[in-house]
């Protein structure tokens, strides 16, 4: 029931909070510019930083993964599904409000049961960024999300986080650089 309610909120252009592998995330429909603007405003996050797209289904990233070679895909598959976010070239296939000032887009195939079910119910990848105002610690519990955002969100729920200690690791597929170590 919670998955369907959250998916309906996303489809209606809402911004929701949901648990991820390690922290709570704020999510919206990446194709809805107004929803993305609202999410960025809630976080006080500049659009230039870019956002992460998350799904429990790798097929939701097909258009972005198709240009990759076998070696690159094998590298990604060693960590998916799981808490590793990969920066892959977007080649103009995502809106600038997702990629920000970057030539790459951040993708993660999640193994969190609620978030994976949410993306299946929604029918595609979602924006998912840590649930906190910029400069504050990411929320690890629902009560922290509510303390940060009160009743400004369209849905808050989905159970507990996956219990990992750090946000997802971020790796650049082209350079091999680890931009944010994982837990």
From TrEMBL:
GO terms for biological process: regulation of translational fidelity; tRNA threonylcarbamoyladenosine modification. Its EC number is 2.7.7.87. One of its GO terms (molecular function) is double-stranded RNA binding. It is an enzyme of class 2 (transferase). GO terms for cellular component: cytoplasm. Residues 1-183 form the YrdC-like domain. It comes from the Bacteria. It catalyses: L-threonine + hydrogencarbonate + ATP = L-threonylcarbamoyladenylate + diphosphate + H2O. Pfam families: Sua5_yciO_yrdC (PF01300). Keywords: ATP-binding, Cytoplasm, Nucleotide-binding, Nucleotidyltransferase, Transferase, tRNA processing. It is found in: Cytoplasm. The keyword tRNA processing applies. HAMAP family: TsaC. Belongs to the SUA5 family. TsaC subfamily. Required for the formation of a threonylcarbamoyl group on adenosine at position 37 (t(6)A37) in tRNAs that read codons beginning with adenine. Catalyzes the conversion of L-threonine, HCO(3)(-)/CO(2) and ATP to give threonylcarbamoyl-AMP (TC-AMP) as the acyladenylate intermediate, with the release of diphosphate. PANTHER family: SUA5 (PTHR17490), THREONYLCARBAMOYL-AMP SYNTHASE (PTHR17490:SF18). This is Threonylcarbamoyl-AMP synthase. The gene is tsaC.
């Amino acid at each position: 029931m919670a998955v369907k309610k959250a998916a309906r909120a996303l489809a209606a252009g809402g911004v929701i909070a949901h648990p991820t592998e390690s922290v709570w995330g704020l999510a919206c429909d990446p194709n809805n510019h107004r929803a993305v603007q609202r999410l960025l405003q809630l976080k006080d996050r500049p659009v230039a930083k870019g956002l992460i797209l998350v799904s429990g289904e790798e097929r939701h990233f097909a258009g972005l993964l198709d240009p990759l070679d076998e070696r690159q895909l094998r590298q990604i598959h060693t960590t998916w599904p799981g808490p590793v976010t990969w920066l892959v070239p977007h080649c103009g296939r995502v809106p600038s409000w997702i990629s920000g000032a970057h030539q790459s887009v951040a993708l993660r195939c999640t193994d969190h049961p609620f978030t994976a079910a949410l993306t299946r119910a929604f029918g595609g990848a979602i924006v998912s960024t840590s649930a906190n105002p910029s400069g504050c610690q990411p929320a690890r519990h629902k009560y922290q999300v509510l303390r940060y955002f009160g009743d400004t969100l369209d849905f808050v729920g989905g159970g507990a986080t996956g219990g990992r200690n750090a946000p997802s690791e971020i790796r650049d597929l082209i350079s091999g650089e680890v931009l944010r170590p994982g837990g």
